[in-house]
Amino acid sequence: MKVLVIGLGSMGTRRIRNLQALEIQTIAGFDIREDRRSAAAARYGITVYSDWIDALEDYRPDALVISTSPEHHMTYAWPAAERNTPCFIEASVVDADRILALHKRIEGTTLVMAPSCTMRFYPGPMKVKELLQANTIGRVLNVNYQTGQYLPDWHPWERIEDYYVSKRETGGGREIVPFELTWLNDIFGQPEPLACVKGTLSDIPADIDDVYHCILRYPGNVILNMTVEVISRPHATRELRVLGSEGEIVFSADENCVRFASSESPDWKRFDLGKGTVEKGYINPEEPYIIEMRCFLEAVRKSDQSLFPNSLYDDYLVLRALQQLEKISGA
Q1: pLDDT tens digits, 134-186
Q2: Euclidean distance between the first and final Cα of the chain, in Å?
Q3: Architecture (CATH level 2) of domain 119-282+313-329
Q4: CA–CA gap between residue 160 and residue 328 (Å, rounded)
Q5: Where is the Gfo/Idh/MocA-like oxidoreductase N-terminal domain positioned along the sequence (predicted)?
Q6: Which of 33, 98, 204, 268 registers the highest number of CB atoms within 10 A of its CB?
């Protein structure tokens, strides 16, 4: 299979590593920046292009991996759909209407469009879902969740002013709300946004909201209180606590584990998550991204969208939830 990676920044080069880990030998890359093209060609031994149309016509890829900044995802996904070329698309935060329109455009076809849902492949969320499906804590009542990382620590090698996280529409805090809802909705269902308070608390040099406090109601009258922020330092934050009628589940990045206790077994039962393989300069392990890419490639090989656990319509729903939360906040 021939894969063309669109965008050769942090995520694009991670996706090249994913593909190479899966023994995909024919990989090319496109980026408008010469420094990124040169670096990717030197490090990964791939063919690179400075013109996107030339890349399509000359390389003739079997699939695209779109790893640009979010505002450009649909710029490449729509022409790919017109060419009947499958796409993997990084997490979105803008263009909800165009995403919905593209969903309708390909609905009923065998064309695979796979919006990223990496957190669904992380061992922590997978274990939480498994424990809930096994009814280990009874009926879910309430969920508290906080996640965040100091924005300048995302890409220590570049200024935040130089990439999309410093822009209001694609800002770091705003982007992470749908990123987290993608896996939370997979576990708890489709939410009704109830409340949102957001704003700028830090002195990060960007015109963005650096904290979102959100309250959502899920099916079964489950209330979820979620805080997304980009101010946690020196360590990133990820803490989930699920309260049930018969016990509770905790997913803690600090402890690197999922644990639960119930009225029948009050002593905590702990599941250590392991560290995985972390590339130099990155924080998150490679393995969940590799598994996600394997899932996409399998869906492409079999022309079966259902083999990938996220869809354009799912993506649209989380972006609509973000819009509703921001409307409630008065934005």
Answers
A1: 999 999 999 999 999 999 999 998 999 999 999 999 999 999 999 999 999 99
A2: 45
A3: 2-Layer Sandwich (3.30)
A4: 28
A5: 1-90
A6: 204
* Residues 235-252: tens digit of each pLDDT: 999 999 999 999 999 999
b/e code 122-147 from CB counts within 10 Å (16+ = b): bbbbbbbeebbeeebbeebeebebbb
Phi, psi angle pair for 125, to nearest 5°: -60, -35
Query: Residue 134 contacts by C-beta under 8 Å, 6 or more apart in sequence?
Result: none
Nearest Cα neighbor of 183 from 236, 118, 244 is 118
Q: How far apart are CA 63 and CA 85, in angstroms?
A: 6
Enter the pTM of the model: 0.95
Do the beta carbons of residue 53 and residue 36 sit within 8 Å? no
Bridge partner residues of 224 (DSSP): 143, 216
Distance CA 113, CA 100 (A): 12
Residues 285, 280, 171, 294: is their CA dihedral positive or negative? negative
The amino acid at 99 = I
Contact 113, 223 (CB under 8 A): no
Q: Output the six-digit token pair for 28.
A: 């090319």
Residue pair 247/138 in contact by the 8 Å Cβ criterion: yes
Residue appearing with tokens 């957190």: 119
Cβ(78)–Cβ(17) below 8 Å: no
Nearest to 109 by CA among 126, 135, 86: 86
Show the tokens assigned to 180. Answer: 């987290």
Domain coordinates in residue numbering, the chain: 2-117+292-310, 119-282+313-329
Kindly list the distances between the CA atom of residue 291 and the CA atoms of 118, 144, 166, 202, 270, in Å, as whole numbers in the listed order.
9, 28, 30, 35, 24
CA distance 195 to 31: 40
Whether the CB-CB separation of 115 and 89 falls below 8 Å is answered with yes
CA atoms within 13 A on the CB side of 253: 15
